[in-house]
Amino acid sequence: MSTELRRELMPYKDFITAEQEQIFILKDEETYRLLSDNKYGPIFESLNAGPLTIKELVKAYNTIADTPRKQTSIYNYLMDLVNKKLILKAGQRIISGKTATEVLYGRRAKLYYSSVMTEEYWNTGQSKAIISKVNQLLTVYTLSEGLSEENLTSLFHKIFANFHSEVGTLFEEHSERVDEIVSPLNFSQLSRITAVLNMLMMVLTQEKYQEDLSKTFPSKFKKG
Amino acid sequence: MSREDHITHEPEPFMIIEDKKQLKAYNDPKLVILLDLLRKGHMPIRDITFEYNKRISKAKSEITIYNYLKSLQDVDLVMVSGQRLVRGSSATTQLYSRKAQLMFPMTLMTDKYWETENSKELIEATRELMSFHTNGSPAESNDLKALLKNLYSVPSVKLKDYVTKYSDSLKTIFSDSSQEEVRDVINLFSLVMILLEPEKYAKDLKKCFP
Question: Given this model, what pLDDT does residue B56 score?
Fold first, then answer.
């Protein structure tokens, strides 16, 4: 029997110390890019079923990934994700008869979805520049004069705040079923689904935005 | 050393990106940097590599940048736009440029998308997730497909007309925007377009979520 096989067959016990969150919202572009990157995707996929040691992760990664990678490369990718707090050191594995333990890595959350447009985003310079441009496009589109950027910001703020709250409730109240639906999906499929949910939730609750819409486009919503 | 640029292809004023392969390249973080920096105009690979490495932490070689450019050329987002002749040198250097000065990504799902296998999976997952949200029975797959197709076609069709009609204004508005900013602006603009025309999808919406 090879040493490696013997090691694999040794009884062990996993001690999980970090609790996995239900949802984690990615709030910045850089983190969003990491999850969309092909080299990181298989790490999340491999850890879907639960925490793994680096050796187990390398094995699982190379079954999923299009391009097989060396353990050193996968370890470096893993550390990028640990540094970004997307993957956690979830616990330790104790192998019978061995003094050294092995680190177990796990997903920070069952579900990651990206939305840079969170509460704090609407106060940033970046959002102001974007709103100003959307405003210019809408001025031409609606043939209106002097649309208020403040009203427009308030409208978007409400749309996205409503979405985050609704999707949060949905995922928390039906966590098990949601988990079954979304866990086989890769990050780009998940991004697509969240975009569609956002759109549907927005049109289903249009009345919530009526006041902001009337304020932003008074000529389109003249009374009578 | 004095030099002379011989430009054979000027970029078009604008283009709408809706082809799957083009969108994939456009959304690739390492390639979008190239599209951004090529807004400066026609550039040889040496200058492109220099500018690219100023924007990232780990420097890339000219060969890597050449491969990135090739990927963008393959999907028609970048072109060889001419040649640079340096006086005293017998060889010329290729110049690269964007295919269009302004690029508008149609990240919205087009009519074609709703006929793909991928969209079926998306519709099935959405049906169930939305039924949790509305506490009702899941919408019929075909009804939900019709609603989504309709919802996304509002901004999709209007955006194309808009971009064609107002290309000069758009050039001014987006003169200093990064590709990511263009994408975010277009996404938000599309949401308002949809909210401004509720009558276009009201019937489908009611059918799915009575």
Answer: 86
Q: Are residues B9 and B73 in the same domain?
A: yes
Q: What is the ipTM of this complex?
A: 0.75
pLDDT for residue B53: 94
CATH code at B18? Answer: 1.10.10.10
CB A179 within 8 A of CB B129: no
Interface test with B, best of A200, A204, A207, A211 (most B CBs within 10 A): A200
Cβ-Cβ pairs closer than 8 A, A with B, add up to: 102
Q: Which of A189-198, B10-19, B52-61, B100-109 has the lowest mean pLDDT?
A: B100-109
Is residue B77 located within the same domain as residue B126? no
Q: Which residue has the higher pLDDT, A41 or B64?
A: B64
Which tokens sit at A26? 């990615």
Q: Cβ neighbours of residue A68 under 8 Å, at least 6 residues apart? A: A62
The three-state DSSP-derived secondary structure of chain A is CCHHHHHHHCCEEEEECCCCEEEEEECCHHHHHHHHCCCCHHHHHHHHHCCECHHHHHHHHHHHCCCCCCHHHHHHHHHHHHHCCCEEEEEEEEECCCCCCEEEEEECEEEEEECCCCHHHHHCHHHHHHHHHHHHHHHHHHCCCCCCHHHHHHHHHHHHHHHHHHHHHHHHHCHHHHHHHHCCCCHHHHHHHHHHHHHHHHHHCHHHHHHHHHHHCCCCCCCC
Encode pLDDT of B173-206 as tens digits: 888 888 778 888 888 888 888 888 888 888 999 9
- CB contact burial B124-158 (16+ within 10 A = b; e otherwise): ebbbbbbebbeeeebbeeebbbbbbbbbbbbbbeb
For residue A217, list chain B residues with Cβ-Cβ distance below 8 A.
196
Interface of A with B in 186-215 (CB under 8 A): 189, 192-193, 196-197, 199-204, 206, 209, 213
**Domain residue limits at B67:** 3-105
